[in-house]
C-alpha cells in the first residue's frame, strides 16, 4: 500500500503566488463597484459581493500565520478517522452510527492563543478546539505549525443543521480537502452540489480517495483514473488527487506533505480570497458587459425633448405674447399722441401672463419674478408628447445596456418628473425676454409725433384765436401764408397728415420688429427650458451612465 500511495501522490499546486497588496486592491475595486451600483442594481444580485467584501476584510485582519484547512466529505467517508490520523490523537469521535460528527472540531498546530480569534470567527466552540503541541514529537510536527485543521459535519447528513454548518464553513476556510471513499466517490451530490462549485478555487482544493486500503493493487489505479475523469468533468482538472488510508501512517504521507507545503507558503488564504474574487467578478460581469454608450443621448433625441419641453412650458404662447406686447408698446410710444390713450385701456399681453413688464428692471429685477406665471397649462397632447420624449431619451440611452441598467435609466429620466412643471414655470418667468427697455427709434418716432401734434395744436389754436377775435368784433388777424394757404391752416392740416403718415410708415416696421422680438424671445425661452431638461431629465440619466462606467471600470480592475 505504501508503494501505491507513493506513486499516486501529487504535489499540492503552488506555482501561482497571490500578492497580498494586489488582492487588497482587487477587493477595493469590488467595493468601488458596489458603491457605483448602489441603488441601481437589486440588492439580491449583490449579496455574494457584499459577503465577500465583509468576509475578506475580516479574514485579512485576522492571523495570516495560520492556514485553515477543512476536511469535508459525505457520511462514512472517514473524515474523522483522517482528522485523528493527521493529529495522531483521538480528537474527533468515530463510530458506526451516522452521522457521527455533528459540529466542527478544530486542531491547531502550535499555540492556541494565536488562533483563538480566528476560531471565534469560524464559530468553533472552545470545547471543540484542540492543540497539537507535544514535547515528545515537536520536531515531527514542526512542518504543520500554523495549521488549523477542521473536521466538518457530513454534508449529506439527515440533519439539516449539519448541512447548513458545512455550507457556512466552506465559505470561510482557506483550503478544502474533499474526502471520498471507494463506495461513494461518484455520488451525484458531492459532484453537482459541491465540487463543481469549487472550479474557481482549484488552487485551494485537494481531493483524497480515503480508505484506499480496501482496494486491491489493480483496483486502486482504475478507481483513481475514474475519479480523475469525474473531477475533470467538474472543472477541477489539475487538482491534486491523493490516495489515503487512516489505518497506516505511511498512507498519510502525501496528504501531510501537501498540508506542510500549504502551511509553509502561507498562500492558501490569499488564494482562496482571490478565487472568491474571481467567482464574484464572473457573476457580476453580466451587469456591465457592454461599453459605456458614447454621446448618449444623441442630438436628435435631445432636440425632440427640447421641443416637447417648449410645448409643455408654453413657449409658443409666451412668444406670441412677446410679439403682441411689442406691437402694443411700440404703438403706445410711436402712435399719434391724440389716440395713444385708448391703447392704455387694452391689457399688455405679457402682463396678462404675469411676465416681466417694461419696468421690471427698474424697481424689481426680472430674475425675482419666479413665482407661478399665468402661462396656459399644457394640453393633453403636449403632456403626452413630453412623456414620449422622456421615454425616448431613456429607451435610446439604455438600449445597449445590460439588465437592469435600462430600468435604472428609465427611473432616472423620470425621477424628477413631478418637479418639472414648476421648474419650467420658473424658467419662463426668469427668462429675459428683451422687453425691459424701449428702443431708441421708438423715442425718436415718438418725438416726431409730438412735434407734428404740437404743430397741429398750434395751428388749431391760432385759427381759434382768429375766430374768437372776429366773433368779438375785434380786428381780424392777418395770417401769414405759405403760397395761398394760411400758415395756421397749414400747421393744423400738415400736423394731422404728418402724424397719420408717420404712423402709417412705422406700422410695417413695428410688425417686422415684433416678429424679430418674438424670434429672439422664443430662442431664449427654448434655451431656458432646454437647461431645465438637462438638469431634470438628462443629468440624472448621465449620472446613471457615469455610475455604469465607474462600475465597469471597477470590475475591470477587480478582474486583474
From TrEMBL:
Biological source species: Micromonospora palomenae
Matching Pfam families: MMR_HSR1
Gene Ontology CC terms: cytosol
Molecular function as annotated in GO: GTP binding; ribosomal small subunit binding; rRNA binding
Record's keyword terms, sorted: Cell cycle, Cell division, Membrane, Transmembrane, Transmembrane helix
Signal peptide: none
Transmembrane regions: 444-469, 489-510
Record-annotated G domain positions: 69-210
One Gene Ontology term from the biological process aspect of the record: ribosomal small subunit assembly
Name listed for the protein in its UniProt record: GTP-binding protein EngB required for normal cell division
Amino acid at each position: 500500500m505504501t508503494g501505491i500511495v507513493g506513486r499516486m501522490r501529487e504535489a499540492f499546486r503552488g506555482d501561482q503566488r497571490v500578492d497580498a497588496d494586489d488582492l487588497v486592491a482587487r477587493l477595493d475595486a469590488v467595493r468601488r463597484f458596489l458603491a457605483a451600483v448602489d441603488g441601481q442594481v437589486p440588492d439580491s444580485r449583490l449579496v455574494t459581493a457584499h459577503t465577500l467584501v465583509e468576509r475578506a476584510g475580516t479574514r485579512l485582519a485576522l492571523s495570516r500565520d495560520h492556514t485553515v484547512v477543512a476536511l469535508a466529505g459525505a457520511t462514512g467517508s472517514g473524515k474523522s478517522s483522517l482528522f485523528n490520523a493527521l493529529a495522531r490523537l483521538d480528537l474527533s469521535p468515530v463510530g458506526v452510527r451516522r452521522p457521527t460528527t455533528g459540529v466542527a472540531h478544530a486542531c491547531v498546530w502550535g499555540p492556541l492563543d494565536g488562533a483563538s480569534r480566528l476560531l471565534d470567527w469560524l464559530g468553533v466552540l472552545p470545547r471543540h478546539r484542540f492543540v497539537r503541541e507535544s514535547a515528545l514529537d515537536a520536531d515531527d510536527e514542526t512542518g504543520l505549525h500554523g495549521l488549523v485543521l477542521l473536521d466538518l459535519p457530513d454534508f449529506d447528513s439527515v440533519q439539516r443543521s449539519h448541512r447548513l454548518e458545512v455550507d457556512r464553513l466552506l465559505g470561510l476556510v482557506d483550503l478544502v480537502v474533499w474526502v471520498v471513499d471507494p463506495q461513494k466517490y461518484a455520488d451525484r451530490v458531492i459532484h453537482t452540489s459541491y465540487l463543481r462549485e469549487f472550479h474557481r478555487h482549484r488552487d485551494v482544493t485537494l481531493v483524497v480517495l480515503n480508505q484506499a486500503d480496501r482496494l486491491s493493487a489493480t483496483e486502486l489505479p482504475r478507481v483513481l483514473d475514474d475519479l480523475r475523469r469525474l473531477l475533470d468533468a467538474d472543472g477541477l482538472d489539475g487538482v491534486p488527487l491523493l490516495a489515503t488510508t487512516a489505518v497506516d501512517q505511511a498512507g498519510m504521507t502525501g496528504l501531510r506533505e501537501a498540508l506542510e507545503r500549504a502551511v509553509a507558503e502561507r498562500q492558501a488564504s490569499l488564494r482562496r480570497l482571490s478565487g472568491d474574487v474571481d467567482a464574484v467578478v464572473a457573476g457580476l460581469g453580466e451587469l456591465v458587459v457592454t461599453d459605456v454608450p458614447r454621446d448618449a443621448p444623441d442630438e436628435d433625441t435631445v432636440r425632440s425633448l427640447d421641443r416637447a419641453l417648449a410645448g409643455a412650458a408654453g413657449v409658443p404662447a409666451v412668444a406670441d405674447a412677446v410679439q403682441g406686447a411689442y406691437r402694443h408698446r411700440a404703438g403706445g410710444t410711436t402712435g399719434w399722441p391724440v389716440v395713444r390713450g385708448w391703447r392704455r385701456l387694452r391689457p399688455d399681453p405679457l402682463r396678462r401672463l404675469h411676465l416681466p413688464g417694461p419696468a421690471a428692471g427698474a424697481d424689481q429685477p426680472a430674475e425675482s419674478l419666479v413665482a407661478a406665471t399665468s402661462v396656459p397649462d399644457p394640453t393633453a397632447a403636449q403632456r403626452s408628447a413630453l412623456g414620449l420624449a422622456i421615454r425616448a431619451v431613456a429607451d435610446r440611452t439604455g438600449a445597449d445596456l445590460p439588465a437592469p441598467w435600462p430600468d435604472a435609466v428609465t427611473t432616472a429620466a423620470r425621477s424628477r418628473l413631478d418637479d418639472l412643471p414648476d421648474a419650467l414655470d420658473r424658467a419662463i418667468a426668469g427668462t429675459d425676454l428683451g422687453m425691459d427697455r424701449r428702443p431708441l427709434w421708438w423715442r425718436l418716432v415718438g418725438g416726431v409725433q409730438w412735434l407734428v401734434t404740437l404743430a397741429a395744436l398750434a395751428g388749431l389754436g391760432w385759427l381759434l384765436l382768429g375766430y374768437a377775435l372776429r366773433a368779438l368784433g375785434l380786428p381780424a388777424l392777418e395770417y401769414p401764408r405759405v403760397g395761398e394757404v394760411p400758415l395756421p391752416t397749414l400747421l393744423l392740416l400738415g400736423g394731422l397728415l404728418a402724424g397719420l403718415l408717420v404712423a402709417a410708415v412705422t406700422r410695417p416696421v413695428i410688425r417686422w420688429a415684433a416678429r424679430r422680438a418674438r424670434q429672439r424671445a422664443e430662442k431664449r425661452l427654448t434655451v431656458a427650458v432646454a437647461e431645465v431638461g438637462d438638469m431634470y431629465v438628462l443629468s440624472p440619466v448621465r449620472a446613471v451612465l457615469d455610475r455604469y462606467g465607474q462600475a465597469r471600470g471597477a470590475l475591470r480592475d477587480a478582474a486583474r
